[in-house]
Amino acid sequence: MKTGRKKPFRSVAILGIGLLGGSLAMAVHRFLPGCEVRLWARREQTLAQVAERKLASFADADICRVVEGAELVILCTPISTFEQLVEKFLPSLDRDSIITDVGSVKQSVHTLIGNLLTMKRYSFIGSHPMAGAEKQGFAHARADLFQGAAVALVNPHRVKDSKLLRLAEFWEALGGHPILLQPSEHDAAVARVSHLPHVLAALCARNAMGGEAAPSALAALASSGFRDTTRICHGNAEMWTDILLANRKPVLEAVGDCENDLAILRQLLQKEDREGINAWLERARLNRSDLLPDK
Fold first, then answer.
1. pTM of the model
2. Is residue 6 in a domain?
3. How far apart are CA 2 and CA 182, in angstroms?
4. Contact at 8 Å (CB) between 1 and 168?
5. Domain of 256?
6. 164 and 286 in one domain?
7. Total domain count, the chain
8. Mean pLDDT by 10 residues, the chain (295 residues)
9. Which DSSP string corresponds to 140-206?
10. Which residues share a beta bridge with 129?
11. Given 149, 181, 213, which residue is the final one in a domain?
Protein backbone atom coordinates (compact mmCIF):
# COMPACT_ATOMS: atom_id res chain seq x y z
CA MET A 1 0.00 0.00 0.00
CA LYS A 2 1.85 3.10 -1.24
CA THR A 3 0.37 6.48 -0.40
CA GLY A 4 2.59 9.54 -0.19
CA ARG A 5 0.98 12.00 2.21
CA LYS A 6 3.32 12.79 5.12
CA LYS A 7 1.05 14.25 7.84
CA PRO A 8 -2.11 12.13 8.08
CA PHE A 9 -2.98 13.08 11.69
CA ARG A 10 -2.77 16.23 13.77
CA SER A 11 -3.09 14.42 17.10
CA VAL A 12 -2.19 10.86 18.17
CA ALA A 13 -2.97 9.22 21.52
CA ILE A 14 -0.67 6.33 22.47
CA LEU A 15 -2.02 4.13 25.26
CA GLY A 16 0.79 2.24 26.96
CA ILE A 17 4.43 3.30 26.94
CA GLY A 18 6.47 0.13 26.72
CA LEU A 19 8.83 -0.75 23.89
CA LEU A 20 6.28 -0.24 21.11
CA GLY A 21 4.37 2.64 22.66
CA GLY A 22 7.56 4.46 23.60
CA SER A 23 9.05 3.86 20.16
CA LEU A 24 5.86 5.18 18.55
CA ALA A 25 6.08 8.37 20.61
CA MET A 26 9.71 8.85 19.60
CA ALA A 27 9.01 8.07 15.94
CA VAL A 28 6.06 10.49 15.74
CA HIS A 29 8.15 13.15 17.46
CA ARG A 30 10.96 12.65 14.91
CA PHE A 31 9.15 11.86 11.65
CA LEU A 32 5.86 13.76 12.07
CA PRO A 33 6.88 17.12 13.52
CA GLY A 34 3.87 19.20 14.44
CA CYS A 35 1.72 16.16 15.27
CA GLU A 36 0.47 16.37 18.86
CA VAL A 37 1.52 13.32 20.88
CA ARG A 38 -0.71 12.35 23.82
CA LEU A 39 0.50 9.54 26.07
CA TRP A 40 -1.18 7.41 28.70
CA ALA A 41 0.57 5.27 31.30
CA ARG A 42 -0.49 3.90 34.67
CA ARG A 43 2.82 4.53 36.43
CA GLU A 44 3.83 8.01 37.51
CA GLN A 45 7.49 7.01 37.12
CA THR A 46 6.95 6.33 33.41
CA LEU A 47 5.10 9.61 32.97
CA ALA A 48 7.99 11.41 34.66
CA GLN A 49 10.43 9.84 32.18
CA VAL A 50 8.24 10.95 29.29
CA ALA A 51 8.15 14.50 30.67
CA GLU A 52 11.92 14.51 31.16
CA ARG A 53 12.50 13.52 27.53
CA LYS A 54 9.81 15.92 26.25
CA LEU A 55 8.17 13.26 24.08
CA ALA A 56 4.57 14.35 24.51
CA SER A 57 2.41 17.42 24.30
CA PHE A 58 0.25 15.85 26.98
CA ALA A 59 0.85 12.81 29.20
CA ASP A 60 -1.41 11.64 31.98
CA ALA A 61 -2.62 8.64 34.00
CA ASP A 62 -6.23 9.57 33.19
CA ILE A 63 -6.96 7.70 29.96
CA CYS A 64 -10.11 9.69 29.22
CA ARG A 65 -8.21 12.97 29.23
CA VAL A 66 -5.53 11.49 26.95
CA VAL A 67 -7.91 10.37 24.18
CA GLU A 68 -9.87 13.63 24.12
CA GLY A 69 -9.36 15.29 20.75
CA ALA A 70 -7.04 12.60 19.38
CA GLU A 71 -7.59 11.78 15.71
CA LEU A 72 -5.76 8.45 16.07
CA VAL A 73 -5.80 6.28 19.21
CA ILE A 74 -3.30 3.40 19.41
CA LEU A 75 -3.63 0.55 21.90
CA CYS A 76 -0.12 -0.47 22.94
CA THR A 77 -0.92 -2.51 26.04
CA PRO A 78 -1.21 -6.33 26.30
CA ILE A 79 -4.12 -7.74 24.29
CA SER A 80 -5.81 -8.99 27.46
CA THR A 81 -6.31 -5.37 28.64
CA PHE A 82 -7.90 -4.00 25.45
CA GLU A 83 -11.55 -4.51 26.36
CA GLN A 84 -11.22 -2.89 29.77
CA LEU A 85 -9.39 0.14 28.38
CA VAL A 86 -11.79 0.66 25.46
CA GLU A 87 -14.83 0.58 27.72
CA LYS A 88 -13.16 3.12 29.99
CA PHE A 89 -12.16 5.70 27.39
CA LEU A 90 -15.05 5.26 24.93
CA PRO A 91 -17.21 8.08 26.43
CA SER A 92 -14.35 10.55 25.79
CA LEU A 93 -13.56 9.42 22.24
CA ASP A 94 -14.30 11.68 19.28
CA ARG A 95 -16.77 10.12 16.85
CA ASP A 96 -14.43 10.60 13.85
CA SER A 97 -11.34 9.16 15.56
CA ILE A 98 -9.60 6.05 14.22
CA ILE A 99 -8.68 3.38 16.76
CA THR A 100 -5.93 0.87 16.08
CA ASP A 101 -3.61 -1.41 18.02
CA VAL A 102 -0.17 -2.99 17.73
CA GLY A 103 -1.15 -6.47 18.92
CA SER A 104 0.44 -9.60 17.48
CA VAL A 105 -2.93 -11.34 16.97
CA LYS A 106 -5.78 -9.92 14.94
CA GLN A 107 -8.72 -12.36 14.74
CA SER A 108 -9.51 -12.35 18.46
CA VAL A 109 -8.95 -8.59 18.74
CA HIS A 110 -11.38 -7.86 15.91
CA THR A 111 -13.92 -10.36 17.23
CA LEU A 112 -13.95 -8.63 20.60
CA ILE A 113 -12.80 -5.01 20.31
CA GLY A 114 -13.60 -4.51 16.64
CA ASN A 115 -17.15 -5.74 17.04
CA LEU A 116 -17.66 -3.60 20.15
CA LEU A 117 -16.43 -0.42 18.51
CA THR A 118 -18.21 -1.09 15.21
CA MET A 119 -21.49 -1.70 17.03
CA LYS A 120 -21.11 1.73 18.65
CA ARG A 121 -20.25 3.26 15.24
CA TYR A 122 -16.58 3.90 15.86
CA SER A 123 -13.78 3.09 13.38
CA PHE A 124 -11.38 0.30 14.36
CA ILE A 125 -8.65 -0.92 11.99
CA GLY A 126 -6.10 -3.40 13.34
CA SER A 127 -2.36 -2.87 12.92
CA HIS A 128 0.60 -5.14 13.57
CA PRO A 129 4.06 -3.67 12.99
CA MET A 130 6.56 -6.52 12.60
CA ALA A 131 9.06 -4.78 14.83
CA GLY A 132 10.33 -5.50 18.29
CA ALA A 133 13.30 -6.48 20.41
CA GLU A 134 14.18 -9.09 22.98
CA LYS A 135 14.45 -6.37 25.63
CA GLN A 136 11.11 -4.83 26.52
CA GLY A 137 10.09 -1.62 28.18
CA PHE A 138 10.31 2.11 27.60
CA ALA A 139 14.03 2.11 28.44
CA HIS A 140 14.70 0.22 25.17
CA ALA A 141 12.36 2.26 22.92
CA ARG A 142 13.85 3.93 19.87
CA ALA A 143 12.57 6.17 17.09
CA ASP A 144 13.83 3.98 14.23
CA LEU A 145 12.14 0.77 15.42
CA PHE A 146 9.64 0.78 12.53
CA GLN A 147 12.09 1.64 9.75
CA GLY A 148 11.73 -0.99 7.02
CA ALA A 149 9.21 -3.03 9.02
CA ALA A 150 6.18 -4.65 7.41
CA VAL A 151 2.96 -3.42 9.04
CA ALA A 152 -0.08 -5.64 8.65
CA LEU A 153 -3.38 -3.75 8.44
CA VAL A 154 -6.65 -5.63 8.84
CA ASN A 155 -10.04 -4.10 8.11
CA PRO A 156 -12.75 -6.78 8.31
CA HIS A 157 -15.29 -4.22 9.58
CA ARG A 158 -14.94 -2.31 6.31
CA VAL A 159 -14.00 1.06 7.71
CA LYS A 160 -14.09 3.44 4.76
CA ASP A 161 -11.08 3.58 2.45
CA SER A 162 -10.17 7.16 3.30
CA LYS A 163 -9.53 6.19 6.93
CA LEU A 164 -7.64 3.06 5.95
CA LEU A 165 -5.39 5.16 3.72
CA ARG A 166 -4.75 7.67 6.52
CA LEU A 167 -3.63 4.86 8.80
CA ALA A 168 -1.41 3.44 6.06
CA GLU A 169 0.10 6.90 5.57
CA PHE A 170 0.83 7.12 9.28
CA TRP A 171 2.83 3.90 9.27
CA GLU A 172 4.61 4.89 6.06
CA ALA A 173 5.67 8.18 7.65
CA LEU A 174 7.30 6.20 10.48
CA GLY A 175 9.22 4.07 7.97
CA GLY A 176 6.89 1.06 7.80
CA HIS A 177 5.55 -0.83 4.77
CA PRO A 178 1.78 -1.40 5.19
CA ILE A 179 0.16 -4.52 3.74
CA LEU A 180 -3.57 -5.31 3.87
CA LEU A 181 -4.55 -8.77 5.13
CA GLN A 182 -7.56 -10.62 6.47
CA PRO A 183 -7.40 -11.38 10.22
CA SER A 184 -7.28 -15.16 9.72
CA GLU A 185 -4.62 -14.80 7.02
CA HIS A 186 -2.53 -12.63 9.32
CA ASP A 187 -2.83 -14.98 12.29
CA ALA A 188 -1.95 -18.07 10.25
CA ALA A 189 1.15 -16.35 8.89
CA VAL A 190 2.46 -14.94 12.18
CA ALA A 191 1.92 -18.31 13.84
CA ARG A 192 4.55 -19.70 11.45
CA VAL A 193 7.05 -16.85 11.14
CA SER A 194 6.78 -15.14 14.53
CA HIS A 195 5.01 -17.15 17.22
CA LEU A 196 6.47 -20.57 16.38
CA PRO A 197 10.04 -19.20 16.22
CA HIS A 198 9.55 -17.82 19.72
CA VAL A 199 8.32 -21.21 20.92
CA LEU A 200 11.26 -23.01 19.30
CA ALA A 201 13.74 -20.51 20.71
CA ALA A 202 12.25 -21.16 24.14
CA LEU A 203 12.47 -24.91 23.51
CA CYS A 204 16.18 -24.65 22.71
CA ALA A 205 16.81 -22.58 25.83
CA ARG A 206 14.73 -24.91 28.02
CA ASN A 207 16.60 -27.99 26.83
CA ALA A 208 20.10 -26.53 26.80
CA MET A 209 20.63 -27.52 30.42
CA GLY A 210 19.55 -31.14 29.86
CA GLY A 211 21.71 -34.16 29.12
CA GLU A 212 25.05 -35.08 30.61
CA ALA A 213 27.03 -31.92 29.84
CA ALA A 214 28.20 -29.92 32.84
CA PRO A 215 26.66 -26.44 33.22
CA SER A 216 30.16 -24.92 33.18
CA ALA A 217 30.90 -26.54 29.81
CA LEU A 218 27.56 -25.41 28.40
CA ALA A 219 28.18 -21.83 29.51
CA ALA A 220 31.69 -21.86 28.07
CA LEU A 221 30.60 -23.22 24.69
CA ALA A 222 27.31 -21.34 24.23
CA SER A 223 28.30 -18.89 21.50
CA SER A 224 26.80 -17.09 18.50
CA GLY A 225 24.65 -20.00 17.31
CA PHE A 226 22.95 -20.46 20.67
CA ARG A 227 22.77 -16.71 21.26
CA ASP A 228 21.14 -15.92 17.90
CA THR A 229 18.78 -18.89 17.99
CA THR A 230 17.48 -18.18 21.49
CA ARG A 231 17.59 -14.37 21.44
CA ILE A 232 13.87 -13.84 20.95
CA CYS A 233 12.81 -16.03 23.88
CA HIS A 234 14.36 -13.43 26.18
CA GLY A 235 11.18 -11.37 25.75
CA ASN A 236 8.54 -10.85 28.42
CA ALA A 237 6.99 -14.22 29.32
CA GLU A 238 3.64 -12.78 30.40
CA MET A 239 3.24 -10.89 27.12
CA TRP A 240 4.07 -14.00 25.11
CA THR A 241 1.62 -16.08 27.14
CA ASP A 242 -1.10 -13.65 26.05
CA ILE A 243 0.00 -13.91 22.42
CA LEU A 244 0.15 -17.72 22.32
CA LEU A 245 -3.24 -18.09 23.98
CA ALA A 246 -4.84 -15.46 21.72
CA ASN A 247 -3.53 -17.29 18.62
CA ARG A 248 -3.90 -20.77 20.07
CA LYS A 249 -5.34 -22.68 17.10
CA PRO A 250 -2.82 -21.59 14.42
CA VAL A 251 0.06 -22.07 16.88
CA LEU A 252 -1.18 -25.55 17.79
CA GLU A 253 -1.28 -26.46 14.10
CA ALA A 254 2.26 -25.16 13.60
CA VAL A 255 3.53 -27.02 16.69
CA GLY A 256 1.91 -30.22 15.41
CA ASP A 257 3.68 -29.88 12.07
CA CYS A 258 6.97 -29.37 13.90
CA GLU A 259 6.40 -32.51 15.93
CA ASN A 260 5.82 -34.47 12.73
CA ASP A 261 8.93 -33.00 11.11
CA LEU A 262 11.07 -33.77 14.18
CA ALA A 263 9.78 -37.34 14.07
CA ILE A 264 11.04 -37.58 10.48
CA LEU A 265 14.46 -36.28 11.54
CA ARG A 266 14.54 -38.72 14.44
CA GLN A 267 13.91 -41.63 12.03
CA LEU A 268 16.59 -40.38 9.64
CA LEU A 269 19.11 -40.19 12.49
CA GLN A 270 18.18 -43.61 13.80
CA LYS A 271 18.72 -45.09 10.34
CA GLU A 272 21.93 -43.06 9.86
CA ASP A 273 20.44 -41.89 6.57
CA ARG A 274 23.03 -39.34 5.44
CA GLU A 275 21.25 -38.53 2.18
CA GLY A 276 17.90 -38.07 3.95
CA ILE A 277 19.40 -35.81 6.63
CA ASN A 278 21.12 -33.72 4.00
CA ALA A 279 17.84 -33.32 2.07
CA TRP A 280 16.02 -32.40 5.33
CA LEU A 281 18.54 -29.66 6.09
CA GLU A 282 18.68 -28.45 2.48
CA ARG A 283 14.91 -27.95 2.42
CA ALA A 284 15.26 -25.74 5.51
CA ARG A 285 17.99 -23.69 3.82
CA LEU A 286 15.94 -23.19 0.67
CA ASN A 287 12.81 -22.23 2.62
CA ARG A 288 14.75 -19.57 4.49
CA SER A 289 16.18 -18.20 1.24
CA ASP A 290 12.69 -18.02 -0.26
CA LEU A 291 11.27 -16.16 2.75
CA LEU A 292 14.23 -13.81 3.24
CA PRO A 293 15.66 -13.31 -0.26
CA ASP A 294 17.30 -9.97 0.57
CA LYS A 295 18.72 -10.95 3.96
1. 0.89
2. no
3. 18
4. yes
5. 186-291
6. no
7. 2
8. 68 93 94 93 83 84 94 94 93 94 94 90 95 74 92 95 96 96 97 96 91 88 91 87 94 97 97 97 95 78
9. G--TTTTTT-EEEEE-TT---HHHHHHHHHHHHHTT-EEEEE-HHHHHHHHIIIIIHHHHHHHHHHH
10. 151
11. 181
